[in-house]
Structures are given as structure tokens and as C-alpha cells.
Design brief:
This protein is of the alpha/beta class. The protein has one domain: TIM Barrel. It is built from eight helices and ten strands. The strands form two sheets. An eight-stranded parallel beta sheet has the order 8-7-6-5-4-3-10-9. Strands 1-2 form a two-stranded antiparallel ribbon. α1 (about 40-50) packs across α2 and α3 runs parallel beside α4. The two termini are about 20 Å apart.
């Protein structure tokens, strides 16, 4: 497996695990909606995450929490573009969390390095049976000479994914999907070292399936791509039952720091090259401990 990720401006060395800091420019994200919803607040948060040790910034303008409604294109562009224009001056790789081809093209045009897509470049505009090439997400990425891309597995779509989650053994299904998604990009000329994959924790999976993906995560390395994993503050972490009598198990989203760091550490131990997190400082500290014994 390659241990480098080629992106638009940076060749990212994955021999040491990387921390991707989350920057949500949204009023309704499940964890930090509204906290960084203005351009100025989002940029301040970018700078804070970098001081805390983030290696990559991941900027998103649309909430994709379970039950979330799609955001109009113009509104997503208005949220994301001003932040990306400034963030690319901060000296680190900038990823944009989007599934719309028009947003991908716009952020790449102003210097973004990575497209991080929950739809794995499959989304097409509702009501358009055959989207033209200019509006095809795969073509946007393929036509850019160097940008990195993260392909994520999602069952169904955000509005309905937890209404009817996946059935059966999730690991081989996710592995097969991600292999096919990457192969589709290869067919358009995208080099292997531009691609990482993400199993999509919480995106159309049950609690048991999410933990199966962690327990058997090494199987996903069989796809042959670096693995990006995002457990940060996910609801499955609050569903873990404690064996201590009388302990509190129903964790609010802001009480999931310790489980989030634990999950990130376990993910890296099982081969993840990148962890996508809200709590950068604490995750970096934990990974430093892991690095000291490696």
C-alpha cells in the first residue's frame, strides 16, 4: 500500500498517522452546529485546530447528520468558498467535505487540495436522469491534474440512512463498495496515490455494524488504499454499555471526548492512516503516546 497521499499542493506522508480537523460552517451539524457558521468564526477555528496539531483541515458547509435535508447549491457555495479562499493560505492541506460537482469545481478552482465525498462521487442532481459531464463528480476530480479524493461508503442517503440501515455482514459489503468506487476513478485516469477510502462510520449502519467495522478494520486495508476513519462524537459511542454499576451510559454529544479519542486510537492501531476529529489536541496527545511505543 502506498504511504503517501498525492493532493493538489501537498504530498502527504502517511507513515505517521495524520489528524484531520473538522471545520463545520453549518448552523445544524450534529455536534457543533452554529459555532463556526460565519467566515470569520470558521477561520478562527481553522487557526485553533492548527495550533492544536491538525495536519489537514476539512471544511464543510452542509450537515450530513442522519435526517438532514439537502442544502441548496448557492447556499453551500456562499458558506464554503470564502473560508476556503482564506484557508488555503494557512500552509496545510485543505479538504472540502461536499458531494456536489459544482462545489467541487469551485473549491478546486480557488486552491483546495482534497475532495472528501460522502457519496463517493456518485451523487447526481435530483430530476436529472443523465447529468452532463460538467456536472459529474467523477469527471470533476478526474479532470483536475492532482487533487486528492476521499471516497466514503454510505448506505442510502442522509435523510433516510438510519431509517433503514444496512443488513448482514457489513465488512465485506463496505470493502466491495469502496473497491468498486476506486476502480471507477482509475478508469477515468485518476492515479491510485490520489485516493483514500473511508468506511463511513454512522452512515446507514447499526451500532453493532459500526463496531464490527472497527473490530475488523484491518480487512478494509485489503482494498489497497490508505484508510481515513471518522468516529468523532458519533452516536454509537454513546451506546456502549458500561460494566460499572451505576455509571452513566447516555452520553450527550459534548460528553463523547474520551470515547472519541479511544476510537481514534484503536482505528490507528488497526491501520487507519488518517483520523477525522473534532477534538484535535486530545487526539494528537493520544497518538503521541501510541507513537512513543511504536
Amino acid at each position: 500500500m502506498t504511504m503517501q497521499w498525492n493532493t493538489a499542493r501537498f504530498l502527504i506522508d502517511l507513515n505517521r498517522p495524520k489528524v484531520m480537523g473538522i471545520v463545520n460552517i453549518t448552523p445544524d451539524s450534529f455536534s457543533d452546529g452554529g459555532q463556526h457558521a460565519t467566515t470569520a468564526a470558521a477561520l478562527r477555528h481553522c487557526e485553533t485546530l492548527l495550533k492544536e496539531g491538525a495536519d489537514i483541515l476539512d471544511i464543510g458547509g452542509e450537515s450530513t447528520r442522519p435526517g438532514a435535508l439537502p442544502l441548496p447549491l448557492d447556499e453551500e457555495l456562499a458558506r464554503v468558498l470564502p473560508v476556503v479562499r482564506e484557508a488555503v493560505r494557512l500552509g496545510v492541506p485543505v479538504s472540502v467535505d461536499t458531494y456536489k460537482p459544482q462545489v467541487m469545481q469551485a473549491v478546486l478552482d480557488v486552491g483546495a487540495d482534497i475532495i472528501n465525498d460522502i457519496w463517493a462521487l456518485r451523487w447526481t442532481e435530483p430530476g436529472v436522469s443523465t447529468a452532463p459531464a460538467a456536472l459529474n463528480a467523477r469527471q470533476v476530480v478526474a479532470q483536475h491534474p492532482r487533487c486528492g479524493v476521499c471516497l466514503m461508503h454510505m448506505h442510502r442517503e442522509p435523510l433516510t440512512m438510519q431509517v433503514a440501515p444496512m443488513e448482514g455482514d457489513v465488512v465485506p459489503q463496505v470493502l466491495l463498495f469502496l473497491k468498486h468506487a476506486a476502480q471507477a476513478l482509475h478508469g477515468l485516469g485518476v492515479e491510485k496515490n490520489r485516493i483514500v477510502i473511508d468506511p463511513g462510520i454512522g452512515f446507514g449502519k447499526t451500532v453493532a455494524q459500526n463496531f464490527a467495522l472497527l473490530a475488523r478494520q484491518e480487512a478494509l486495508l485489503g482494498a489497497g488504499y490508505p484508510l481515513l476513519v471518522g468516529w468523532s462524537r458519533k452516536s454509537s459511542l454513546a451506546a456502549v454499555k458500561s460494566s460499572s454499576p451505576g455509571s452513566v451510559t447516555a452520553l450527550d454529544v459534548h460528553e463523547r471526548l474520551v470515547p472519541s479519542v479511544a476510537a481514534a486510537l484503536l482505528a490507528v492501531e488497526r491501520g487507519a492512516a488518517i483520523v477525522r476529529v473534532h477534538d484535535v489536541r486530545e487526539t494528537v496527545q493520544a497518538l503521541d503516546v501510541l507513537g512513543a511505543i511504536r
